[in-house]
Amino acid sequence: MDYEIIIPSHRPQLSHEAQSCVKYFNNRIFDGTGYPSFSKLINDCIVTSNYEKIIICNDKARPTTSDIGKILTMLDEGWGVVAPYRFGFFGFKKDLIRKIGFLDERYIGGGYEDNDYILRLKEADVSYYENEEIEYVYLPTSWNYEISGLTGNYYQTKWRQEGNTYTRRLPEEDYGYDIGPFKNSYFTTFDKSVLLPVRRNLKEQIMQVDFI
Fold it and tell me: Which of 88, 144, 156, 186 could pair with 58 as two cysteines, CB 3.0-4.6 Å apart?
């Protein structure tokens, strides 16, 4: 077994409902109480995992056996991130993190960290599969989007978009997390990506760097 499903949550009822959907797979609930950001929560899930393939399952996601099998198969085929429900249910290899880094923990309160990471996949020329194809419980978010204006401002500072060009203005932070050396995983290229309509033009975007 080279994978695990992690359910980060501070809501016992929802997390156990999600866990019942993945009970035949290697899984655990990760206590998400008191985290300042989604990015920090996911990074800690990664650091505490003993497995090379990780599936993050939001406590509102209700995946089937075939949904999980699809992620594992696509990861074996070289996809960078496989997200059958955006960043509410997504899988990746630790080698992706070793290649392009952890999630950016500066998105305090939640919001924009998924957009950020997708741009980093584009920047690194690594494929991304995104859809909204699994059952998902629609409930209010537990993140503090009242301060998402601040994360939005940070996102706009880090990534400047002009026409068909994204310019990176800020480097990634080094958090000093140790998940071992790169294991030479092969990743398919970003042009193979399957994107939701809101990102349909991203394949044609040009990525460049001009640090502030």
Answer: 88
- pTM for the model: 0.96
202-212 pLDDT, tens per residue? 999 999 999 98
Q: Are 93 and 185 in contact (CB under 8 A)?
A: yes
CB proximity list for 109: less than 8 A, separation 6 or greater? 36, 37, 143, 144, 145, 146, 147, 148, 150, 151
What's the number of domains the chain is made of?
1
Query: Which CATH number covers residue 205?
Result: 3.90.550
What does the pLDDT average to over 173-196? Answer: 97
Token pair for 61: 């996601």
User: What span, in angstroms and rounded, lies between the C-alpha atoms of 192 and 168?
Assistant: 23
Structural domain span for residue 101: 3-209
What are the backbone angles phi and psi of residue 3, rounded to the nearest 5°?
-145, 165
* pLDDT for position 100: 98
